[in-house]
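Section handout 9: paired folding examples.
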Amino acid sequence: MAVTVETLEKLERKITLTLPVTAIQSEVDSRLKRLARTVKMDGFRPGKVPMNVVAQRYGYSVHYEVLNDKVGEAFSLAANEAKLRVAGQPSITEKEGAPAGEVTFDAVFEVFPDVKIGDLSTAEVEKITAEVNDAAIDKTLDILRKQRRTFAQRAQDAAAQDSDRVTVDFEGKIDGEPFEGGKATDFQFLVGEGQMLKEFEDAVRGMKSGESKTFPLAFPAEYHGKDVAGKTADFLVTIKKIEAANLPQVDDALAKSLGIAEGTVAALRADIQKNLEREVKTRVLSRNKQVVMDALVAKAELDLPKASVQDELGRMVEAARADLKQRGIKDADNAPIPEEMFRAQAERRVRLGLVVSELVRANNLQATTESVKAHIEDLASSYEKPAEVVRWYFGDNRRLAEVEAVVIENNVTEFVLSKAKVSSKAVSFDELMGQA
């Protein structure tokens, strides 16, 4: 059939759909007959309800259902005939003044844009590299030791210092009035490890068991407790106990306690290095991928379909709502979450998705079965039973689709890096971990 497509603005199009009334009525009659065979109504046996009664009760809803189906089918056929890539759902309205025996509808919708990707050889990308050195291994060892530290009570006249565990009673007041969460008994924390606000730690550091002190504490404006954020409280703190931390020695016993089969320090350090190198590889790839995507988007020209942006906004709001539920926030379903706070991010996601799709299509960067399998096997290699992990991935199409998306992103990253002007920058292990 001949389809006339009217361009309204940029990506917005309009198609007029015409349906014969006889075809609609024929389908309505057919569905009512099928319904009559099973419908149950008071005063009639199943399957014996007269057609006029069935039509009177269900005719309107069946007619509405048929009309929606027929219009949807007509729109799909027309869009396919015109070779349109429709973005989002069409807005369909019935037109008045249709010829006798016909009903006419206007379908207004958006199409996906043509994506023009500029010369990638002029794109500038800074690619980072990072290595795992002995200092990074030592720092990880210290973390593992702290996770297994023990504590022994200090002498009565010993002053609290960093790394000590102190047991305190405290009470805070604002303008002489206690506030919720401002009082505790037998409260423990580690001095100098950021578990308390800096002013609180500074006040406790140097105090001895049995001592009390009053000090002011200014809550930051962005403090999570809204009732006290930006206010200054007066705290009274009493030290009840001070315990010194004892860290285990870096020896074969520590290696065995951490599950190292060989039970040696050398094997422990080698295991830490292997795990850190895997983490560094992941973070470097993620950072480089982000820079590549930024460069790719900067080289692309396209109009954004409003429908696609709106769909993405909806998903982001729902994700935010789900996050509130997970945190135990009451009435999360009714929490006011303005879409505008996500708009820039939603537009970027849509833009990036369209650009990547075009680059993949134009350069055959799709994920192959072999590349997906190789990626899964690489992921599984870090687990104790790799074969089970591989089966877990291949046992669910959704998980496979997620891996496929990652492989495609990696293909795109490598492709852009092969074309762009790439400079390298070595970053320290600490800097890389800080960025993440």
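Moving on to protein 2 of 2.
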Amino acid sequence: MKENIPIVMMKRNPINKKRELSDIVLGLLGTLLALYGLTVFNQHTLMTLSLGVRMMAMILTYWLVATVPIIIMLICKENLFDYGFTKNKICQQILVGILVGIAFSVVLTLIPHILKLGNLVDSGKRYTHLWQFAYEFLYCIFAVGLVEEFLFRGFFYAKIKRISNDTTALFSSSVLFGLFHLFVGNVFQMVITIFLGAVWCLCRNKIKYCSTLSLVIAHGIYDALITVWASILLQ
């Protein structure tokens, strides 16, 4: 059983359930609208930019997806500690994140490649240069991992838990995580991400020193290694 890391939560006495529910709805609508805008931008504008500008834009524009939840967080006078982040044992949190990310990658990506099922977990990206792999890790951790963990294991999980319970929050935030990926993927990816979201929630709740920061790192490493394995094994 995990020795829980103290998580600073702002006291709400009593919890305004209508306010929390409206925050969830507005946050979800804002997230999906921003995701749609980002998808359009990537399809019609991103590739017209120079390589350096495009690399920066990919990271910075992904944070637009979290704009509305961030605004809600500030209006409610909340902070990252309300969403599962903590200052305690940072090095241990980082180490746990690395180990969890590698473990997930081995089980869900490397083993399928070994079993000749790599097409099911292929990102479609193929890299040949070291700098490309390095950038993939930066992008997956500081854009995809940071934004999506803040949203789904942070903002939505915390808000749902306040008006229900931990089990409902785990299930609901994971379903929202899956639906989020339906807009940029397919039904298979949606099912996988629902499963991933649920297990990542369990990791944070059960593994010692596993925080939302740990999941940011784990998520980023897991996503980046998808491209690494594909580029190496599917050449």
